[in-house]
Design brief:
The chain is mainly beta and 117 residues long. The protein has strands at 18-19, 23-29, 35-46, 49-54, 63-68, 74-75, 78-79, 82-94, 97-105. The strands form two sheets. A six-stranded antiparallel β-barrel has the order 2-3-4-9-8-5. Strands 6-7 form a two-stranded antiparallel ribbon. Strand 3 and strand 4 form a beta hairpin.
């Protein structure tokens, strides 16, 4: 871990982050004003957000649309897709990519439980 990944001050996370590669689709507008849609996978995920790698340069506080196939509420026909808007809250440059950390807006991912104290 380099110093850019160390939380500043007394920052404490409310949710446990899980390092896992879950397929996602992300749609938005990059720093150059170009619309994009990409299928990729998560680096980390929690109830309230996720991070992933992209070659797209974005700015905070960009707003993106995130779809996680099959991770939404369970219906009589099975689980549906999780769908949320999300704010870019952190951007880290990693080699030739950007690691974007997103916070879901108005939605939580029920699959992952909150960390308890």
């Amino acid at each position: 871990m380099d110093n850019s990944e160390i939380p500043a001050g007394n920052e404490r996370r409310a949710q446990r982050r899980v390092k896992t590669a879950i397929p996602i689709r992300v749609r938005g507008v990059d720093a150059k004003g170009m619309e994009f849609e990409v299928s990729t996978e998560t680096v980390e995920i929690s109830r309230r957000g996720l991070s992933f790698l992209t070659d797209r340069e974005l700015k905070t506080p960009a707003t993106l649309t995130v779809v996680i196939p099959g991770r939404g509420p369970y219906t009589g026909a099975g689980p549906i897709d999780f769908f949320s808007t999300a704010a870019v809250v952190r951007i880290l440059k990693e080699a030739e990519s950007y690691r974007l950390s997103l916070r879901f807006i108005g939605a939580t991912l029920n699959t992952y439980s909150a960390e308890t104290n």
